[in-house]
Design brief:
The protein has a single domain, classed as Beta Barrel (OB fold (Dihydrolipoamide Acetyltransferase, E2P)). Helices cover about 40% and strands about 35% of the residues. It is built from 3 helices and 5 strands. A 5-stranded antiparallel sheet has the order 3-2-1-4-5, covered by helices on one side. A hairpin with a 2-residue loop joins strand 4 and strand 5. It is elongated, with a radius of gyration of 23 Å.
């Protein structure tokens, strides 16, 4: 393993490929920690009474890379709330995932315009608000990726270097 030729293109490609996975893991760890911190601090956010304004059913269409044969369609129901914090008026648009168009329509009819709702908002940035406190464990996928991606990348780099020295 001491005779590794770093001028070999295969070795450099292997190291770059492995390094890319390590960087993806660092990226996932950053966003995972950031999301968990917001979820934990939101438990201490003040509440404000908001008014439900309206809902809109949104259709999302995504095509495969070649824009050929596969079309993926999903729906959300965007709930809009209006609230006042620190003397300013804010609107919160909260998308809710739906299983189908019918489900999205049903979600849009669950609340009546003018209905009052309690929101949690960030005091330093009152435009950041949510209707419910989120469980920090929902971010598990970020941390799973943050652990597995670098391990995979290190494994690729190690195997590439190990075989490069043969």
């Amino acid at each position: 393993m001491s005779d590794i030729d770093f001028s070999n293109t295969g070795t450099l490609v292997t190291l770059a490929f492995g390094g890319a996975f390590v960087l993806m893991g660092v990226f996932l760890a950053y966003f995972g920690v950031k999301n968990v911190m917001i979820d934990l601090e939101s438990r201490n956010w003040p509440t404000v009474e908001a008014i439900y304004v309206d809902s809109e059913v949104i259709k999302h269409v995504r095509r495969d890379r070649d824009n050929q044969s596969h079309t993926y369609t999903s729906y959300t129901c965007d709930h809009t709330y209006q609230y006042n914090a620190d003397g300013e008026t804010y609107n919160l648009v909260e998308p809710v995932s739906a299983k189908s168009q019918e489900h999205a329509v049903a979600l849009s009819k669950q609340m009546k315009s003018g209905e009052k709702v309690t929101l949690f908002y960030q005091p330093e940035n009152p435009s950041l608000a949510r209707t419910e406190l989120l469980d920090p464990s929902r971010n598990t996928i970020w941390f799973l990726g943050a652990i597995l991606m670098p391990l995979f990348g290190i494994g690729i780099a190690y195997l590439g270097l190990f075989h490069a020295g043969e």
